[in-house]
Design a protein that fits this description.
nine-stranded parallel β-sheet, 49% strand, eight-stranded parallel β-sheet, mainly beta
Length: 273
């Protein structure tokens, strides 16, 4: 797939309006300044791929009215701190996903301010922590207008002596009637010395809204491992197969075949690092 590479104008990237879906690449590896500003014009239909940078970064995003499409974060290599702060206009319809297969220690802070009415955002996280990785995720949606919708799903796997934490907040402010905020977090803990934690939070200041949360952190089912090993797999192969089943759904959120192949390879290699 051919993508238009975004070029900064004094640390500001622009995506123009479009009648058809346009494909863009924002490669943060070449960026040496922070914060970065991304402005998405009204009526833009986008398929945006963001590749992580080599330093701590903050990305501030203005999403105008009637924007639609997909935003995909692909994170490989060395882990860095990353902040995404987005303001969302009216009648926006976005699907966003992040796949984190970095190594090391870092914090990812994601926030969406739902400013315009009748907008919706779907968010999906898939993160793998292995060896002595230390990863912390905060994903937050603040509903400030009528009939806004947010749904976040955070999935993770921990191995070795790593740690992975998810916090998610859905906040419906007074005046944001008929809004809906939902979240779910699941972390699979493979080894005795690794750590997983999920902290979902709901803050509801208005009536006539919908809100839900769910969180699951648990050890891999030993019966499942035993069954797979009884079918001829080694324990390492069985763990890899379970990891595939747990994290592989994130691949469907990415549209580049090269990224899909790289994600699949990273998932398969996770237990072998």
């Amino acid at each position: 797939m051919q993508r238009n590479k975004l070029i900064a104008n004094q640390s500001v990237f622009h995506i123009p309006s479009s009648k058809v879906r346009m494909h863009y690449l924002l490669d943060l590896s070449a960026v040496t300044f922070s914060p970065i500003h991304l402005v998405i014009a009204p009526n833009a239909d986008i398929d945006l791929l963001i590749e992580n940078g080599k330093q701590d970064l903050k990305l501030e995003v203005d999403i105008a009215d009637y924007v639609s499409g997909k935003i995909q974060f692909a994170m490989f290599g060395e882990n860095k701190n990353f902040i995404w702060q987005a303001s969302v206009g009216a009648n926006v319809n976005l699907e966003a996903a992040i796949a984190d297969f970095t190594e090391g220690k870092g914090r990812v802070m994601i926030s969406f301010e739902m400013l315009g009415r009748d907008s919706q955002v779907e968010w999906r996280t898939a993160a793998l922590a292995s060896h002595q990785d230390r990863k912390f995720y905060s994903v937050n949606f603040t509903h400030k207008n009528f009939n806004t919708y947010a749904n976040m799903t955070n999935y993770g796997v921990t191995e070795g002596q790593s740690s992975l934490q998810f916090t998610g907040t859905g906040h419906i402010l007074n005046g944001a009637k008929f809004s809906k905020t939902h979240q779910a977090a699941k972390i699979m803990v493979f080894d005795e010395k690794c750590f997983g934690r999920a902290d979902p939070v709901l803050k509801i200041d208005e009536n006539e809204v919908e809100a839900s949360h769910a969180a699951t952190v648990g050890r891999v089912n030993e019966d499942h491992l035993y069954y797979l090993q009884s079918r001829g797999l080694t324990k390492k192969e069985a763990k890899r197969l379970i990891t595939l089943g747990y994290l592989q759904p994130i691949i469907a959120y990415f549209t580049d075949e090269s990224i899909q192949e790289l994600l699949s390879k990273q998932i398969e290699l996770g237990n072998q690092k």
